Amino acid sequence: MSKPRIFSGMRPTGRLHLGNLLGALDNWVKLQDEYECVFAVVDWHALTTGYEDTGEIRENTMNLVIDYLSAGIDPEKSLIIKQSDVKQHAELSLLLSMITPLSWLERCPTYKEQLRELEGKDIMTHGFLGYPVLMAADILVYKAQVVPVGEDQLPHLELTREIARRFNFLYEPVFPEPKERLNEVVLLPGTDGRKMSKSYRNIIEMSASADEVKNIVANMVTDPKRIRRRDPGDPHVCSVYAFHKVFSKPSLDEIQKECKSAGIGCVECKRKLADALNEYLEPIRARREAIERNPGIVHEVLEQGARKARIIAEATLEEVRQAMRI
Ligand code: TRP
Q1: Bridge-partner residues for 179, per DSSP?
Q2: Which residue range is the domain that position 13 belongs to?
Q3: Is the beta carbon of 37 within 6 A of some atom in ligand 1?
Q4: Whether residue 6 has its Cβ less than 6 Å from ligand 1
Q5: What is the pLDDT of residues 237-281, one digit of tens each?
Q6: How much distance in Å is there from the Cα of 208 to the middle of ligand 1?
Q7: Protein residue whose Cα sits closest to atom 3 of ligand 1
Q8: Same domain, 268 and 300
Q9: Largest alpha-carbon pair distance within the chain?
Q10: CATH code for the domain in which residue 262 is found
Q11: Does 198 reside within a domain?
Q12: Sequence-ordered list of residues with C-beta below 8 angstroms from that of 47, at least 6 positions apart, any chain
């Protein structure tokens, strides 16, 4: 019995941070034994909103692969691919675009929201409207049954199922309808207590060095009412404590008590957090350093991934062309 297949991907838009690691990559890593996984860097998708300035796409793609590998995605178990290496994604996207009603795309909530949010950027393009069709092709070209995603991607997955159903109805039943598998939500705020997001400059990059982590933590926002060392603190308004909740689970009660009784100062409490973060990041750093000593590995991984992915994808395309009489 073969394992069920998983597909997921991320756009190469810059270095990943701890929020991405806990919110997505750590989940992917856990799925590798149970499923046959394909993890993609979706560089064509990056063009949908970033077609004007493409200067960093290649570098970002390489860095994202390094982030995948250092998080523990294992190329012996999973396929790691660059979307643009597997042209079958494009062919399937084109064919699916023929059967996808415009109205489905126009009423997609992510489309309407992005149009509003990215006001000033000209994304009134065919490619941007067709984002979910390309995403459906990514998933369906591997006949993936399961797609690990965040909640924000649910409308795209619903559309993917609708497109699959329409294809199966119009021609022949070729595609399974993929199910989402929601990433476990980890409540990790940014270093200032807001949502961790590149645009707020409150992130800790996955690739941060031990010293960078110490520095960032030293500058984190604590209970603003705790001014002097002897003032008792309120852990529940402290972003350092929010991090402890994720990274220092065994000593959480103690940290909470010590903060409330002013038994421990913020400096000491931050030192503990930096140690815990660095311990968590250590194996990730070790893998990254191994890659940096042997950078050719990134190309090899992508080549091997593309070679195997093309075989699976081409088999699907043969069925699709047959079903459509192309
Ligand atoms: N839209 C996804 C995101 O922004 C990226 C993506 C593209 C994707 N194709 C996919 C995710 C296929 C899952 C499956 O995060």
Answers
A1: 146
A2: 5-188+295-324
A3: no
A4: no
A5: 999 999 999 999 899 999 999 999 999 999 999 999 999 999 999
A6: 25
A7: 10
A8: no
A9: 78
A10: 1.10.240.10
A11: no
A12: 54, 57, 127
* pLDDT for 28: 96
25 and 153 housed in the same domain: yes
Is the domain of 302 the same as that of 181?
Answer: yes
Could you tell me what percent of the chain has a pLDDT over 70? 100
Give the residue, by CA position, lying nearest to ligand 1 atom 2: 10
Output the CA 10–ligand 1 centroid distance in Å: 6
Residue 151 located in a structural domain: yes
Q: What's the mean per-residue pLDDT of the chain?
A: 94
Give the mutation target among 133, 149, 157 for probing the ligand 1 site: most ligand atoms within 8 A of CB: 149
Mean local confidence (pLDDT), 47-74:
95
Residues 143, 36, single domain; the answer is: yes
Residue nearest to atom 14 of ligand 1 (CA): 8
User: Given this model, what pLDDT does residue 119 score?
Assistant: 77
| pLDDT, tens digit (0-9, with 9 covering 90-100), for 160-183 | 999 999 999 999 999 999 999 998
Identity of the residue numbered 100: T
103: Cα within 13 Å, side-chain hemisphere: 0
pTM: 0.94
What is the token pair recorded at 28? 């992917």
Residue 81 Cβ inside 6 Å of ligand 1? The answer reads: no
Distances from the Cα of 121 to the Cαs of 11, 74, 110, 272, in angstroms?
18, 37, 16, 43
Ligand 1, residue 7: give the atom nearest the CA. 14
Phi, psi of 64 (to 5 degrees): -70, -40
Could you give the number of structural domains in the chain? Answer: 2
Give the atom of ligand 1 at the shortest distance from the alpha carbon of 11: 5
Span from the CA of 81 to the centroid of ligand 1 (angstroms) = 13
In a domain, 68, yes or no: yes
Supply the residue whose CA is at minimum distance from atom 15 of ligand 1: 10
